[in-house]
Amino acid sequence: MPLPTDPGGGYTHEQHKRNQRSILEAGTLYRLTGDMAYAHFVRDILLAYADLYPTLGNHPAARNQLPGRLFWQTLNDSVWLVQSIQGYDAVRDALSPQDRERIDADVFGRMARFLSEETPTNFNRIHNHATWAVAGVGMTGYVLRDPHLVDIALNGLEGDSTSGFLRQIDRLFSPDGYYEEGPYYQRYALAPFVVFAAAIEKNQPELGIFEVGDGVLIKAVTTTVHSSYGGLFFPINDAIKDKGLDTEELVLGVAIAYARTQDPTLLSIARRQGRIPMTPDGLAVAEGLSQNLAQPFAFSSRILRDGPDGDRGGLAILRRGDDLTGQTLVMKNTAQGMGHGHYDRLNWLFFDNGQEVVTDYGSARYLNIEAKSGGVYLPENNSWAKQTIAHNTLVVDQTSQFDARLSVAEEHWPEPGLFIDEPGLTLSSATMRGAYDGVVFTRVLALVDHPALPMPIVIDLMKADADRAVTYDLPLHFSGQIMTVGFEAERAVSSRPVLGDGAGYQHLWVDANSPNFLGERSLSWMLNGRFYTYRFVEDVPSQALLVESGANDPDFNLRREPALIRRVEGQPSVRFVSVLEPHGRYDGVAETVTDGSSRIRHIAHAGDDAGDVIVVTLVSGEVFALGVSAPGQEGRSHRLTVDDRVYAWTGPYARFDQ
């Protein structure tokens, strides 16, 4: 029971986390076995806290966050309360009235007041930190039989429902169950949402909490599962890439959702998680698994709308095959995501063969590693990870979207365009206004199948128009070892220049730089035994730069990761066209290469104000194309010529096979 002194990752921080876990687990074991040794164990820990907690002020290691008492930020105190109150609830009736009164008053009562009335700035927020706080305070209210604590948790400190748990459900989730901050924080916030909801259902069933918002809390569980590939969450916004379906929060969420829906596809996720909570909901999962009721979870293409009313863009997920070895393309057409959001409208990621191929950096943070500033977000999270150049989307004049100003970014989101999901073609498009003054850009991303190709390819069209001449940069961050560089470039062999002096550019080393060129170029790399060939062309002269993150990083906080940047200077408008082709296999054991060369001969493009067509010619001579109308031009007839062939269509899009 140490006096709190350390930030995240330090001894006192981790010990109090272990204590909260011990309280919960011992309480669970008492409920299961009736063995008083467990109840006495919980009692003894909490009586020690009754001695310690009243003596505590603000945590000495607090930084910019609101300081806690046991931990460096109030968030961790809230998590402690959510966990510990459940363990105490299990044993409370077995304790003596004197012990119960002391623990009620000096531990849980004090902590509930601290996290609510004494820190109203946090408690009244619409944010995951506040979700943990209201859940802990509300559950404490139920356990202590204190209706005031329950009421402020549900309806806010003012009692007018402008804050509190019910308001958070209404404002933080979209109608599809998508959480504003993105998948990483969705799984984190999921635990207090579903655990507190289960407590509300037990104590106040008349509220119908799991039916609120058309059952949005159950939708949030399945949406969290959909927001993953290979068992890991899509690493957008302030994400840590290690987190996935087996996280504790989602283990709880799946059990609670299954117990209320009997959805057999959730059992397959529970089986993958490999553990079950020791609760009545967990028992329902165990029984379902033992009866072989599990069915495969349907990972499928979809749009997850963003915003409380579903009108602030959305996350487009384009899939082929399963979520372990198949292909998944994610197009980030969402709103900002509050303080954990990044400045990356119309960003994209691509997963294949169990790997993240076209990558998102995620966050610059080493959670709970004391050597890395105690596990907090590092300075490079702002100077690199959040900046637009760290993502696979458009940068104008080497400045980040919205000039990296959160208040401005929160007022703008993409305008959804097409979403097509049919055999052989899955496509999403969106348009962004307001990210840069006087600039509008539209992106179309598609997964396209062809009988002559063993795997689908990605077709990408980025169109940008400005009211002046600007410099456009379009990065592609990728994972793997470069195989071939299909363009002339000056290599930085003896020294590595830095690309810029701000907005994330100061963190990029330049390894190669091509002169302006008008025509098709390519880059290929290998990842996990599979080859990827990226072909690209612009409608105006452009440069190609090969760069790597890690410059101006004296504390070695950044991962070293490669990227290709396509640059167009001094132009008001540009069309960036590209095709990403997965192909072949390298077997290092057998020392064999299969299909190591691209099956695409070249790509071409034509466009006007009303639409565009991208043409792919294979080595075999076969040709196929994708025509897409510009926003607002879907009803027009189009006629474009590429390589002496005419492509004509009417409607929003057309697929051509020749």
Low-confidence residue ranges? none
| Class from helix and strand fractions | alpha+beta
Helical proportion, percent range: 25-40%
Backbone CA Rg: 27 Å
The overall pLDDT average reads 96
Dominant shape: elongated
Number of helices: 15
The biggest sheet, with number of strands, parallel, antiparallel or mixed sense and barrel status, is:
12 strands, antiparallel
The N- to C-terminal Cα distance equals 74 Å
What is the percentage of strand-forming residues?
25-35%
DSSP summary, beta strand count: 27
Features:
658 residues; 12-stranded antiparallel sheet; 5-stranded antiparallel sheet
Could you please describe the fold and organization of this structure?
By secondary structure, this protein is α+β, with helices and mostly antiparallel strands. Strands 8, 9, 10, 11, 12, 13, 14, 15, 16, 17, 18 and 19 form a 12-stranded antiparallel sheet that branches. A 5-stranded antiparallel sheet has the order 3-4-5-6-7, with no helix packed on it. The chain has a 4-stranded antiparallel sheet with strand order 22-23-24-27, with no helix packed on it. A hairpin with a 2-residue loop joins strand 1 and strand 2 (232-233). Helix 2 packs across helix 4 (97-115). The longest helix has 23 residues, at 11-33. The model has no long low-confidence stretch (mean pLDDT 96).
